[in-house]
């Protein structure tokens, strides 16, 4: 399937390392979301990723893999999103893992299916921030510089402002989107009500909903229904 993420406004992110019932998955896949993103910071393996993909593939919803480690690259997703953590202090997460993967698979990769994501991790308590030693004590000017780096310098089609586990500063998100010329701005973190979905959707191009799926499915499902008319 050809998937055009430039049309996406809402995404559910599912973690292969967390349990989800068939009924919950059914409701998420039929919710009207624009896509399912599969990914997580820890415990993601080939086996749990392939299991989840097979279950999601019973539905028509587009399904993309956000690659977090080389061992968990499973063929068969619509697209493969490759995070490049622009504010990581550990270069493993900027170019290190990528270099290893390209050494192994570079000659056989289908580049039409691969999209780099310029990641900016802003919640210092998030697992991803700890894993990557992200520099999270940054202000809006710093974030704008990272965003321009992704958009203008590296020509990345996607910038991801990641507050995983906390609802971020929507003014900062709005300003960050304002400096992007070509890249699409994804925002994820702490969206657990329709009101927060609305605020985030007014600041970013695409909103990503994760954790609330596992703690309150009903509220998670409501986040799809924000008012899209103003955008
Ligand atoms: C996580 O950005 C996503 O990578 C979504 O964040 O889990 O806080 O919803 P939450």
From TrEMBL:
Keywords assigned: Lipid biosynthesis, Lipid metabolism, Magnesium, Metal-binding, Phospholipid biosynthesis, Phospholipid metabolism, Transferase
Pfam families per UniProt: PcrB
Cofactor: Mg(2+)
Annotated EC: 2.5.1.n9
Catalytic reactions of this protein: sn-glycerol 1-phosphate + all-trans-heptaprenyl diphosphate = 3-heptaprenyl-sn-glycero-1-phosphate + diphosphate
The keyword Metal-binding belongs to this UniProt entry's keyword annotation: yes
Chain sites annotated for binding sn-glycerol 1-phosphate: 13, 160-165, 190, 210-211
Pathway where it operates: Membrane lipid metabolism; glycerophospholipid metabolism
EC top class named in words: transferase
Superkingdom to which the source organism belongs: Bacteria
GO molecular function, one term: transferase activity
InterPro entries referenced in this protein's UniProt entry, alphabetically: GGGP/HepGP_synthase_I, GGGP/HepGP_synthase_sf, GGGP_HepGP_synthase
Binding site for Mg(2+): 15, 41
HAMAP family: GGGP_HepGP_synthase
NCBIfam families: GGGP-family (TIGR01768), PRK04169.1-1 (NF003197), PRK04169.1-3 (NF003199)
Family classification: Belongs to the GGGP/HepGP synthase family. Group I subfamily.
Subunit structure: Homodimer.
Primary role: Prenyltransferase that catalyzes in vivo the transfer of the heptaprenyl moiety of heptaprenyl pyrophosphate (HepPP; 35 carbon atoms) to the C3 hydroxyl of sn-glycerol-1-phosphate (G1P), producing heptaprenylglyceryl phosphate (HepGP). This reaction is an ether-bond-formation step in the biosynthesis of archaea-type G1P-based membrane lipids found in Bacillales.
Protein name (Swiss-Prot/TrEMBL): Heptaprenylglyceryl phosphate synthase
Organism: Paenibacillus aestuarii
């Amino acid at each position: 399937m050809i998937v055009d993420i430039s049309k996406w406004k809402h995404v559910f992110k599912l973690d292969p390392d967390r349990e989800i019932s068939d009924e919950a998955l059914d409701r998420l896949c039929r919710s009207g979301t624009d896509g399912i993103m599969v990914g997580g910071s820890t415990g993601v393996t080939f086996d749990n990723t392939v299991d989840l993909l097979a279950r999601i593939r019973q539905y028509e919803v587009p399904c993309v893999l956000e690659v977090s480690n080389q061992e968990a690259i499973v063929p068969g997703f619509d697209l493969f999103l490759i995070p490049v953590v622009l504010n990581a202090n550990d270069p493993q997460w900027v170019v290190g893992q990528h270099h290893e993967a390209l050494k192994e698979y570079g000659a056989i990769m289908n580049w039409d299916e691969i999209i780099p994501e310029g990641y900016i991790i802003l919640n210092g308590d998030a697992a991803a921030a700890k894993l990557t030693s992200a520099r999270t004590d940054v202000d809006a000017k710093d974030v704008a510089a990272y965003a321009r780096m992704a958009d203008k310098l590296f020509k990345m089609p996607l910038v991801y402002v990641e507050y995983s586990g906390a609802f971020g500063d929507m003014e900062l998100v709005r300003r960050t989107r304002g400096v992007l010329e070509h890249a699409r701005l994804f925002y994820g973190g702490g969206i657990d009500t329709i009101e927060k979905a609305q605020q985030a959707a007014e600041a970013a191009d695409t909103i990503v909903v994760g954790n609330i799926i596992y703690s309150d499915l009903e509220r998670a499902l409501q986040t799809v229904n924000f008012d899209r008319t103003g955008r």
